[in-house]
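Q: What would this complex look like in 3D?
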Amino acid sequence: MPVISYREAVRHALAEELQRDENVVVMGEEVGQFNGAYKVTEGLLAKFGARRVVDTPISEAGFIGLGIGASMLGIRPVMELMFWSFYSVAFDQILNNAANVRYMSGGQIHCPIVVRGPANGGTNVGATHSLTPENVLANHPGVKVVVPATAYDAKGLLKSAIRDNDPVFFLENTMLYGEKGEVPAEEYLVPLGQADVKRKGTDLTIVTYGRSVLHSLAAAAILEEQHEISAEVVDLRTIRPLDIDAVLTSVARTHRVLIVEEQKPFASVGSQLAYMIQKEAFDELDAPIHRLATIDAPAIYSPPVEVEQIPNPQRVLKAALEALQ
Amino acid sequence: MANIIEMPKLSDTMTVGTLVKWLKQEGDAVKSGDMLAEVETDKATMELESFFDGTLLKIFADSGAQVAIGSPLCAIGKPGEKIDVPAPAAKPPEKAEAPAAKPAEGGQKTEDRGQKTGDGEQKKSQPAPPMPPSTTAVPAAVPKAGQVSEPTHPKPAPAAASSDRVKISPLARKLAVEKGIDPARVTGSGPGGRIVRADILAAEKSGGARVGSAVPGAKKPAGPSAFAKGPIQEERTVPVSNMRGAIARRLVESKTQLPHFYVEVEIDAGPLLALREQLNANLEAEGVKLSVNDFVLKASATALRQVPTVNASWETAASGQGQIRHFAAAHVAFAVAMEDGLITPVIRDAHEKSLFEISSEAKALGKLARDRKLKPDQFTGGTFCVSNLGMMGIPRFTAIINPPNAAILAVGTTVQKPVVKDGAIGIGQTMVLTLSCDHRVVDGAVGARYLGALKQLLEAPALLLV
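A: Here is my prediction, written as structure tokens for the whole assembly.
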């Protein structure tokens, strides 16, 4: 099976869908001539032309609004945000218009838009460029929120997202773009709303998503080697719809839970998960639900401190051992 | 000279009160109307009010002390004022057996059953018969399988010692029930001594904390019945609560001094159950949920009007001669089970109240009773008493009369069984009512007439609605 990077996996998904459906278009700042700020869209302009790969002005509210309007008329735009941190400029378009239009039109108007781009810390780009808004996005009924951790998932999920008839917010990670993984040459889809057990285990369930999946897998390996503890790693992949059944199934097996998220902890995805787990699996719990999140402060500019602010394998390991007490 | 506050007589049978806890400390400023302390009497925990302004100069009785009526509790006056200390009276409580708290029996600490931990108080008037829950007052325990257990007010008694709580994970708690392990006897290895799954599994292996046979897949919390074959329970003696002491005293008095006799009748409960179902189905939206006991309470009160001789008390006149007091109103008490005893809240003027009034009042009183919030006038002054073990599946039993009542009605569960009707055998719903009578007041024929009236009302229950 070919081994490609996460970046290439996203690009392949875009290329395949551009090829498959003439209504698919890619729009965003510098996605065309500059080949993308993070080179995700490299070569797409050359291959599909300026009608399908469109450079936009630096105006998120404007071009996201453009995409939403187009999507209501049958176009399937894939909008790139250079950073998800700038979603707030287009907040009204994304979360007031796109999220609500199907409901408010009584199902007459669909909004099959995908908004994608990186949302992560750890790159020393400062507090205003390091937001992780998946919890804010997922708070809005009517939208879907995807945070893939691997090249395989990124490609399969993006293709499903483009074909989905609702707004899908696709949160990538600049730290993952270079991560490589096996991706089949033939076409495949990963359905939205399905978690994936990335590692089987019996003593602890680590529920996580995005780049934290890699940290959790690294910590799980150390737990096994040095502590003879078998941790299960459940990758949510999609934040909304949330595959709570997969989580509960795992909790029923291990009876202990650690949630790991690259999120500020207050009212985060982990908060919601913890609520749902205790509500549905109270009698399965042998310990309080533990959570490891980004330390609750604006993204810290100092690189060595920022590395400790967000989850990393050592922090996951420490939190796991606490959850196992 | 400073004012000395003494233990007041807070109920007419109270001889001793337990000082649960002080709400003011020495040196605190006190105004008239301030609450000084919580005092536990036989049946309720009440607050002790100050009638003086000043400073709390001295406390004579420590928390937990049992203090006889009239003995000094504290002194209030101006700072530096002379305190004329009366003879010491507060005797220390027996050892560590502080007042509140301490679940009564081993195995009850699990909290599984949602019962209150506290214990309580006691004495004053009206304990009644055996072990009576009233319908509304389902004793905390035992949610039926498949049924969502209602939140039962696990309100701790005042001053409940938190150290008595068993810290245990939800999973370990469930496992303990399934495996018949008493968590109170397991040492927790988790943070803060929390019992976790591994501790229960270890206890199962060693067999040490086992209280009974395992209940495979059991959903219901382990009640005593699950432990019927129960081996090994550590032998020990437990000081009784004020409440248990009062129950013991009054019921021994009743059973040894009152000439009890019993009459019993089996009624056709079919119409009653049908009417109840019909009313509950149609009035659900209004929040009405009638219990069988509500009908029994209503019928008891109505029957007391029809056979008023039962609504009476034997008394001894000043001359030493016996006399019988016939009451003008039917104040119907009903027994409510508590963790380590019972109490009999009273529905006043029940003869004038509708079924729905009685139902909602019984519910409210039952809750107050279980929360130990009844005021003395809510559990005294009953003229007749109903004890119902029907909801615990008991088909029939006899109750001990709760003096000064002349009778008590023991209500069994409704049973489906073959009955002969119009010469043919069919399936019927029956219920057995047993009346315990004080023969000094109620003769056999009177008791029979009373049960006859009850039977007529309960078999034609529409009469209770008019």
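A: To summarize the key features: The longest strand of chain B covers residues 407-421. Chain B touches chain A through eleven residues (CB under 8 Å).
Q: Very helpful, thank you.
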